[in-house]
# Entry
Amino acid sequence: GRPGAATTTQPAAAAAGGGRSRTVISRRDFFRGGLLASLAVFAAQFGGATLAFLWPSIKGGFGSVIDVGDVNDIRNSIEQSRQPFYYGAGRFYIVAYNGNGADSTYAGLTQEGLMALYQKCVHLGCRVPFCQQSQWFECPCHGSKYNNAGEYELGPAPSGLERFALSVSGGRVRVDTSLIVPGPPRGTDTTSQRPEGPFCVGG
Ligand code: FES
# Structure
């Protein structure tokens, strides 16, 4: 029975050897595959971030036309809170505008009594908060003040606040942050709004 046993063990050993070498190859493939996969993930993330940086409109953030929300919701929010509707991702405020410049000073910028103001102070660029008491925008950095339409009132700012074109269609408010519109010059006053209470910022 020996020769028979020898002939049966040899193919078995060969099969075992082949199995071992297949295991090594497949492990190498596994690592190579993992590396390729992580490279692909990295490339996708990097590529996505680059695209988002180059074309912010893909993200719907600052630099694009932003769908801010329902016109009635925004109007109600402004009315109830007695302050502008702030949209941080777009760096603007939406204010209720009922001054007399809708067809002149702000033609093409305001619609349905709403207007979008850039949050950045035209003096040296601080974000300008709205003061609930005075109902004006008051810059904490050097005390520039703007009325509720973002028109220059006091301080070192050279003009009114910059702004963005706002449009309403199908009940949705859209603000185009791709184009910064210069603020109206000092002396522009289309609302005749006096401070409605004490200032938040002195000076
Ligand atoms: S940055 Fe606003 S007053 Fe100077």
